[in-house]
Amino acid sequence: MHFKSVIGQEKLKSRLIEEVKNDKVSHAQLFLGKPGYGTLPMALAFAQYLFCENKGEKDSCGECSSCLRVDKMEHPDLHFSFPTVQALSNTSDPFLSDWREQVIEMPYFNLNSWLKRIDPKERKPIISVHESQQIIKKLTLKAFEGGYKVMIIWMAEEMNPQCANKLLKIIEEPPAKTVFILVAESQDYILQTILSRTQKIIFPKIGCDDTIEYLKSKKGGAPSESIVSRSKGDLIEAQELFSENQGEDANNQLFIQLMRVCYKKNVLDMISWAEDITKTSKENQKQFLKYALHMFRQSILRNYTGDVITRVSEDEDAFLENFAKFITGNNIQSMTESFSDSVYYIERNANTKILFTNLCFQVMRHIHTG
Ligand SMILES: [Zn+2]
């Protein structure tokens, strides 16, 4: 992994690069922060930079044989330890191929998604004393390439005390050119004796602009402000919120546009709205119609109960504040019929361009009888 593939965290990147350039790499480091801040991707980029045979000023080359092997997670001097479900295996190695797949597919992940991948029963995973023996064994071997050996312990807070105690000595006095990178979300459960032997690097939240860029590149769409602010600089959280809301956000925009053009009786805009939605899949069209039905119900609820029992997002709420009054006892039934009839006809392969154009004219009539 390149440093440039790690989202944000520019200050930390420079700091780590300086360590390598000045030959002052601390032999035991603790990368502390939420997984969504990029602690593991940074550990991978750092390891790649250490191993790289042709280091640039700001990044590894990505082309030498060391870089290529780190990229494939196959470098013989890059070792990993991570929590496992003890009933399945008390050491990490049997899960290495799952681990490689996960990291290559999506290096931003948390313990939850790791657990889902390795155990359908989702039992609690830990790093046990058996694993500490493996760690010691691997690090006392000579480096295959004669350079650095790197051990990344992911979710180091999941080491149980027996495991942590067994590692104290090697973390304090590791063999030459050995670097421990402990990656942890919280230091509360890490033994004080381990903490005192590591150099702590605290990861800050990811900035708003970087979060937006990340979602655009991963999800192909711009997130709403509400998602960015609710994710609190955690890219994993941002991605989950975005996936949940992606459909709703798009439908919300379509709904607002439809209501506006119909209210203004702008026939040209109505036709172009109908053309746009016709280009989407039938599944999307049906979802939109159902979403619109939901918004009409919420409008009525809002009118008759205040906003006590409405179930809407912040964006929807802001729209409904002005819009709800246009949906009343006079038009709710006809409005509902127009939209549920449309679902019915789409399922029976109606010509959607005609259908949605008709729908626009119906909405225009209904909205002015509210
Ligand atoms: Zn390289």
Summarize the biggest pleated sheet: 5 strands, parallel
Oligomer: single chain
Average residue-wise pLDDT: 91
Describe the strand arrangement of the main beta sheet, using strand numbers.
Answer: 2-3-4-1-5
CATH C-level label of the largest domain: Alpha Beta
Summarize the helix and strand pattern as letters.
Answer: HEHHEHHHEHEHEHHHHHHHH
User: What small molecules does this complex bind?
Assistant: zinc ion
**What is the 3D form?**
elongated
Unreliable residue stretches: none
**Residue share in helices?**
55-70%
Q: What is the number of E strands?
A: 5
CATH fold topology of the largest domain: Rossmann fold
**Domain module tally:** 2
* CATH architecture grouping of the largest domain: 3-Layer(aba) Sandwich
Going by helix content, strand content and strand pairing, the class is: alpha/beta
| CA gyration radius, whole angstroms | 27 Å
Strand content: 5-15%
